[in-house]
Amino acid sequence: MSKFTLTLAVAAGVLTQQAVAAGFIEDSKVSVSSRTIYYNADAREGPSTPANNQRETAEGLKFDFQSGFTQGVVGFGFDAQALVGIHLDGGKGHHPDNNSFSPSDSDGSAVDEWSRLAGNVKARFSKTEAHYGSGLQPNMPILIANDTRVLPQTFEGGTVTSKEIDNVTFNVGQLEHATGRASSNSTGLAVNGGTQESNQFRYAGADWKVTKDLTLQYYYANLEDYYKQNFLGLVHVYPISTNQSFKTDIRYFDSSSDGKNGDPGYTFNNNGGFAKNPGEVDNKTWSAMFTYTLGGNAFLVGHQRVNDDGGFVYLNQGSLLNNSGHNYGAGGASFYLFTDAMINSFVRAGENTTFGQYTYDFASLGIPGLKASAAYLRGENIKATNGIGNDQSEWERDLRVDYVIQTGALKGFGTTLRHGTYRGDTNISAQDQTRLIFNYTYSFM
User: Fold this and answer.
1) Is pLDDT of 18 > 70?
2) Using CB atoms within 10 A as the burial measure, which of 86, 182, 358, 362 is most buried?
3) DSSP assigned state of 3
């Protein structure tokens, strides 16, 4: 039995004895969620291989239990999660053997199902909460758990969130392992291209709500032997009138090499682009977004600049291999930039990206729950991998429609249809991608 499993077992036993205490049961929440995805990724260039002609359908089921806290100066609780993925359609000819959507069997076809369990013990003192376990799903500027496929990405480690000071939220923690969205097994941590596992991602930061309209952020993160990262953020909303507002959102990242970064296995592939020092992290990225909202209309424009020395860096375990040399299925990651688009990321060295989006909320026309959006991103001045020439460019167009049923027996049932088109003169293949997603959550408590 691992140290982590033993810790959870002991904690669960202690909490069971206190389960009768007011708050632990009364404040508990139990839910079952279902997500079904049809995923079609059609590369417009190259041979007709599974990787270039992916068509798959799968369903994810998630059971969540979140307890309340026991009584006393320090309250204790426990959260548990069971996840099952079921592959419904998409034979070997349409399933790439890279575990990006669902795990692969020994013959390269998709497995019929995959599953995992996760749990966290937690404690609360005053306005401070601590969580320790394997079901963590962080959502911070320096790390966002990915939830764009059938099952969510989860992390193992410990976190502390404190709101002891009015209008300030402090976050600190250390994460040691991750379980990918298409995997039943956890791995260590890494970045794109890194084949050696790091078991220490430490972070600390704060969100300060200066006024009701202005929030300032600072975070520091360190993935041992890969990178150090500083983040600064500013979010301001200017209320023009009852149904009008203007939002400013500015983000800045400064990332540098740490420890063994650059040594064999600890390299960073710089998102397939140029690097001043190949394999090493060296990046500064800033982005700014401005959103004007009028009634049901939202107009968004922004710009992002990646410096010339190397690509933007974030956690991604996709290059880690098991003892047999096969992909773990741990790939797939999200990051806190406006260019984390449906198909591409627009974060290579030298890249200047201008983007815009229009969103309409049909509640203004008496159809609550229905929203539609169209986005366009264009990146230019991408440095070629040899550092000669800055004329590579790329663009993406994303269309999206969401509808959530508001009343009746199926209240909360959501449908999302997304279509993306990517083109460019880089080393990324042109692609058309379509996703049809059905979501439903039923809460028992």
Assistant:
1) no
2) 182
3) H
Token pair for 333:
């990651």
What the block records as the tokens of 136 is: 């963590």
Tell whether the model's pLDDT for residue 283 goes beyond 60.
yes
Q: What pLDDT does 381 receive?
A: 93
Structure tokens, 390:
């800055």
pTM of the model: 0.91
Residue that the structure tokens 């039943």 belong to: 184
Query: What is the rounded distance in angstroms from the CA atom of residue 138 to the CA atom of residue 145?
Result: 6
- Report residue 246 CA to chain centroid gap: 26
Domains and CATH numbers, the chain: 3-443 (2.40.160.10)
The continuous run of DSSP H or E covering 15 comes out as helix 3-17
d(CA 115, CA 86): 9
* List of residues 6+ apart from 397 with CB closer than 8 A: 374, 375, 376, 420, 421
All residues at 6 or more sequence positions from 396 whose CB lies less than 8 Å from its CB, including other chains: 341, 342, 343, 344, 346, 375, 376, 377, 420, 421, 422, 423
Strands (DSSP E) contained in 363-430 are: 370-382, 392-404, 414-424
- The CA distance from 342 to 357, in Å, is 13
pLDDT in tens, 74-113: 999 999 999 999 999 865 678 877 667 888 887 778 889 9
| Rg over CA atoms, the chain | 22
Tell me the C-alpha distance between 392 and 390, whole Å.
6
As a whole number of angstroms, the distance between CA 94 and CA 107 comes to 13
Residue 186 exposure: Cα atoms within 13 Å on the Cβ side: 20
Q: How confident is the model at residue 46 (pLDDT cuts 50, 70, 90)?
A: low
The answer to whether residues 315 and 223 touch, using CB atoms and an 8 Å cutoff, is: yes
